[in-house]
Design goal:
The complex is a heterodimer of chains A (about 140) and B (about 650). Chain A is about 60% helix and about 10% strand. Chain A is of the alpha+beta class and about 140 residues long. In chain A, strands 2-1-3-4 form a 4-stranded mixed sheet. In chain A, strand 3 and strand 4 (about 130-135) form a beta hairpin. Classes of the chains: A alpha+beta (about 140), B mainly beta (about 650). At the A-B interface, helix 2 and helix 3 of A face loops of B.
């Protein structure tokens, strides 16, 4: 019982600390964020069309390819690939900037929750169990 | 056959009585491995007939209340015919049909839609014919509702015929499409032609055929394939236990031929092999590799040249892979990394050690190009290693890779490995010329016995030593972060000792200075060849040597100090002399988020300023900086401007 409590406290502490340092700002983080921002104009219509969704681990996934005309699907796949590449690099970089590379997965999940909170109504998002639902 | 028997019985029963009579026939249940019919009712009344089936189970589906109505039912001895018939399945539009039986022969004509016809003929000798005119998938999805979700479209035309000993079919599919419910497999506007024929010998069917794909798109996430008149021909055998593909050849224009062989039971593939003897790699890269890599966020790659490959598969999994590039080329991220003239052979075999060798004519990393070299490799399990040291010619010397070993880990960790390399002394003159930098003389050598790569990060044990400007510069704590990611970075600590200022200032047209300096750059971080962060300190080297600084150098140093820097001498006084004496030089800059936090000679801060040059000798000159936080980009552009022009900065 004591052990469990300790673990819980540790996890809480980690989450709180990770939360506190998510705003860390380095040239690499800025560059990744601006790359993601400039891509957003292309991703936004795909989110609105229900083609893409936000996963709980902070990534973008093709949720419903059928919502994209067949000839455009490779373009959408490439956008998702490039976006996830930037996102993975962003989480890793934030973990590094916090001097805790092992926090990467926690940071990704925290960001996942944030992106989902910020998602517009009608977008597909994953709940805590990984199930897709429309926001 | 069995169903025919049942209805024939009804016909025969009626045939005994020539008078047109009302007839009623009821069957409670009929069973057959493929069909189960319950509550069958046949009614004939004044030349019209109706067949009702309470429950029909066929092809794994079950329908309740199936009705077959005949607008006109001709019943004569030995022959019957259902004319203007309608087949009604629950929840479906009625299908027009004609059904006729004479002796052992059957005719069935179905018209599920306008301008659509399915003609079926079965002869007493076992010969069966099916002819299709604009057949749509509707009939199929009616019989197999699970196919409805695939959104099948298209028209099928052609003929199928056969008996117990042989069959042949010639079909053409046009405007065809489908989509899996999740959209990850789909097709659009497909045009396909097939021909297939078979002959039975004992219990084995020998089958052969061909197909041609002439139009449309085929999508298997993430790859979208386009029709280019791809042709397939195949021959094989089929029996009750399984199948064997003797040979299939897919001829893909521009790409090359793909050959396949295999065998399996009806449940699983037992063995198979794929041979791609001579492929055009550029097409392979564009069609298959690029979409696959880019959807995984890997950098854009372009392939060129030709090559062969083979894969062997057996029940337990992949057994063997061999690759044979023939003058292949690879360009990553439009030139960040390029390989040219790659040839040789590489083989991987499950549970075996295989040795192979690749030859490379040229490897380019940005502007740096190597000569030709050989790469002797060993493959074992998930491990790729070097068999012998690698000698890579680079700028009249060589880079020697003593060892490397990489292991592929399934999952997010991807690759992990270690290598050791050394750079034999390399003339800086050639290196700086190749990199388009100001020409420097000196030598670079490196000894990095242990480079570890894991989790997207390479750490380098050992050091890189550059003998330049008569001094020594060494890089330690070298790390490469995300070398294959969107923002590759280099981290290092740089220590420089006894650099000759005379040579340095001449190289960079920084005016004239004599003397020596020591420099320390801690936690240097570079991305896209620009520094992101460092903690730097430059001081005069200890020892006794002449220390002079020219007017132009003073101007440039004041520029370095930012807007607030000034030379602590009278402007008129400065103009009389070409150079001055100094006692010490000191400058520090901690670069953080684009801002350089500056300082001067330790312990020599005065009046809120910091001394960069402390005067000494005759005439003496002291340079003091006042601006402690300078924007890095501004500093660099001001320095560049100062070096370019000889216009004097503001000196008070």
């Amino acid at each position: 019982m004591k052990k469990w409590l300790m673990l819980g406290l540790l996890a809480l502490g980690l989450a709180a600390q990770a939360q506190g340092n998510l705003e860390v700002d380095t040239p690499v983080i800025n560059s990744l964020k601006s790359s993601m921002q400039s891509r957003f104009a292309q991703l936004e219509p795909l989110f609105s069309a229900g083609a893409l969704g936000l996963t709980r681990d902070g990534k973008v996934e093709v949720h419903d390819p059928a919502a994209i005309p067949l000839a455009q699907r490779p373009v959408a796949n490439n956008l998702v690939g490039a976006e996830n590449r930037d996102r993975a690099a962003l989480y890793r970089e934030i973990a590094r900037a916090n001097q805790h590379p092992e926090w990467e997965a926690d940071i990704a999940r925290t960001f996942g929750r944030r992106w989902i909170e910020k998602a517009r109504p009608g977008w597909w998002v994953q709940d805590d169990n990984g199930q897709w639902k429309k926001k | 056959m069995w169903l025919a028997g049942g209805i024939l019985l009804a016909g025969a029963a009626y045939g005994e009585n020539p008078e047109p009579l009302d007839l009623q026939l009821q069957l409670a249940r009929l069973e057959h491995p493929f069909v189960v019919i319950e509550a069958l009712q046949l009614q004939v009344h004044e030349g019209q007939g109706e067949l009702q089936i309470g429950s029909l189970a066929l092809l794994g589906q079950r329908w309740n209340r199936v009705r077959l109505q005949c607008g006109q039912l001709d019943l004569t001895p030995g022959r019957w015919r259902c004319h203007q018939g309608r087949l009604q399945l629950p929840g479906q539009a009625a299908i027009a049909l004609e059904l006729e039986q004479q002796g052992g022969d059957w005719w069935l004509r179905l018209q599920p839609g306008a301008d659509e016809m399915w003609r079926f003929r079965y002869q007493a000798n076992g010969r069966t014919q099916l002819s299709l005119h604009n057949a749509s998938p509707r009939l199929l999805t009616t019989l197999l509702p699970s196919w409805r979700a695939k959104a099948l479209q298209g028209r099928l035309n052609g003929e199928l015929e056969g008996d117990a000993h042989r069959f042949k079919a010639r079909l053409s599919l046009s405007q065809a499409g489908y989509s899996s419910p999740d959209g990850r497999q789909a097709a659009e506007a497909l045009q396909l032609q097939f021909e297939i024929q078979g002959r039975r010998q004992a219990q084995v069917w020998q089958v052969q055929g061909s197909a041609r794909w002439s139009a449309g798109l085929l999508y298997q996430e993430p790859v979208l394939l386009e029709a280019a008149n791809q042709r397939l021909r195949f021959a094989g055998r089929v029996d009750g236990r399984g199948w064997k593909l003797d040979e299939a050849v897919l001829d893909w224009p521009r790409l090359g031929e793909i050959e396949a062989q295999g065998q399996g039971s009806w449940q699983a593939l037992e063995a198979g092999q794929l041979r791609l003897p001579d492929l055009d790699l550029q097409t392979l890269g564009e069609v298959l590799l690029r979409p696959w890599l880019e959807s995984r966020g890997l950098p854009r790659m372009a392939l060129s040249g030709r090559g062969g490959a083979a894969l062997k598969w057996q029940g337990s999994g992949l057994q063997q892979i061999s690759l044979e590039p023939r003058g292949a080329g690879l360009v990553v991220d439009s030139g960040r990394l390029a390989l040219e003239g790659l040839s040789g052979r590489l083989e991987w075999q499950r549970d075996q050690v295989r040795e192979g060798e690749l030859r490379l004519e040229r490897l380019a990393l940005g502007r740096l190009e190597t000569g030709a070299f050989r790469v002797p490799l060993r493959l074992q399990g998930r491990e790729l290693a070097l068999r012998q040291a690698l000698h890579i010619p680079l700028l009249e010397t060589q880079v020697v890779v003593d060892h490397f070993k990489f292991t592929y880990l399934p999952g997010p960790g991807d690759w992990q490995g270690r290598l050791g390399l050394s750079v034999q002394p390399l003339a800086l003159e050639a290196l700086t010329r190749a990199l388009d930098l100001p020409t420097m003389t000196g030598r670079l050598s490196a000894n990095l016995p242990a480079i570890h790569y894991a989790r997207g990060e390479a750490s380098l044990e050992g050091d890189l030593v550059i003998q330049v400007f008569d001094g020594n510069l060494s890089c330690t704590e070298l790390r490469l972060i995300d070398p294959f990611g969107p923002m590759p970075r280099i981290l290092a600590d740089v220590t420089a000792r006894h650099l000759d200022l005379g040579q340095m200032t001449q190289t960079f047209s920084f005016g004239q200075m004599t003397g020596f300096i020591d420099a320390d750059l801690r936690q240097l971080e570079i991305a896209q060849w620009r520094p992101l962060a460092f903690d730097a300190r430059i001081v005069s080297s200890p020892g006794s040597y002449p220390r002079r600084i020219s007017q132009k150098a003073v101007e440039n140093i004041t520029a370095l100090g930012g807007g607030g820097a000034m030379a602590a001498v009278q402007g008129s006084f400065l103009r009389f002399f070409q150079d001055f004496g100094y006692r010490r030089i000191g400058l520090s800059c901690r670069l953080e988020n684009g801002v350089c936090h500056m300082g001067g000679i330790a312990g020599e801060d005065r009046n809120g300023g910091y001394a960069i040059v402390e005067g000494g000798g005759i005439p003496a000159l002291t340079v003091i900086g006042y601006n402690r936080n300078v924007d890095w980009n501004e500093l660099v552009s001001r320095l560049q401007a100062a070096i370019r022009s000889s216009a004097p900065p503001v000196i008070k």
